[in-house]
Amino acid sequence: MSWINLLIAGFFEVFWATTLKLSHGFTKLGFSIATLIGLALSFYFLAKATKTMPISLSYPIWTGIGAVGSILVGVFLFKDNLSITTWIFVIMLIVGIIGIKVTSGH
């Protein structure tokens, strides 16, 4: 169950980062509220995951999910343009997240 909580936390990490962008510096009330709710839920599920997972595993995976997810949202929703070099580093980040999971023994 801790892995499910961690994945949910990562989803809400991407959610709040996206709604933060859409809030335009907290000037749009609906998106500002959504940002705070997403932030709270992300931390809540991360806290649940860290009850049974080491922080050395859960935190980097949580931030990695948030980073990769936010990159994908930026590219597909906000039409961010990334260079080939940047994509290589995104792939390295994904490999690193998977590597942490696979070698953790959890």
Automatic annotation (TrEMBL):
InterPro entries: EmrE-like (IPR037185), Small_drug/metabolite_transptr (IPR000390), Small_multidrug_res (IPR045324). Signal peptide: none annotated. The chain crosses the membrane at residues 29-47, 59-78, 84-103. It comes from Lentilactobacillus kosonis. Belongs to the drug/metabolite transporter (DMT) superfamily. Small multidrug resistance (SMR) (TC 2.A.7.1) family. GO terms for cellular component: plasma membrane. PANTHER family: GUANIDINIUM EXPORTER, SMR FAMILY PROTON-DEPENDENT DRUG EFFLUX TRANSPORTER SUGE. This is Quaternary ammonium compound-resistance protein sugE. Keywords: Cell membrane, Membrane, Transmembrane, Transmembrane helix, Transport. It is found in: Cell membrane. It is a multi-pass membrane protein. Its main location: membrane. The keyword ATP-binding does not apply. One of its GO terms (molecular function) is transmembrane transporter activity. Pfam families: Multi_Drug_Res. The keyword Nucleotidyltransferase does not apply.
